[in-house]
Predict the 3D structure of the following.
Amino acid sequence: MPREYDKLVRDRIPDIVEANGERPVTHVAEGEEYDRRLAEKLDEEVAEFRDSGDPEELADVLEVVYALAARAGVSRDELERLRTEKVDERGGFEDGVVLERVE
């Protein structure tokens, strides 16, 4: 029985589906469609992490972030440099600081 997904998947998923004796129907997203589907995938992976707390879901989030960065012309090394720069300027999230208001 066919199952509908209509979502961006990792590159090797069609091979895995075929190895399981099923026939994947796919197309390659490009341009605006690819950008939209990456954004949707980010939301999906973040929701999966929020629901499960599984670190493997964080790895999925990171993979989508790397793909989004590449679309923006930013390498993984440059992304890490930008992240470190922000930590140096504004700090990270290790202390759990909640800004309630500014008076």
Observations:
- The helical segments are 13-19, 31-52, 55-71, 76-90.
